[in-house]
Amino acid sequence: MEVKLGRYEHFKGKQYEVIGVARHSETLQELVIYKSLYDSEEFGNNAIWARPKDSFLETVNVDGKEIPRFMFIG
Fold first, then answer.
1. What is the mean pLDDT of each run of 10 residues along the chain (74 residues)?
2. Bridge-partner residues for 67, per DSSP?
3. What is the pTM of this model?
4. What are the residues whose beta carbons fall under 8 Å from the beta carbon of 50, sequence distance 6 or more?
5. Residue extents of the structural domains in the chain
6. Residue 37, SS3?
């Protein structure tokens, strides 16, 4: 499954922007590269993150309902 570039909402409510998909230099595992769209006291404004693609695309169980960890919003 492909990851679209653009905005996503994490199931906990904060928004992020996917800026690309990279490969780990040794394992070749696909990693989603994204930045936060909020200011964090701990990590600053627009912190950059990487998460394994499988984890980014997986669902999570919230109150007995399976929902996407990250939902594409545009």
1. 96 97 97 96 94 97 97 96
2. 60
3. 0.90
4. 22, 31, 32, 33, 34
5. 1-55
6. coil
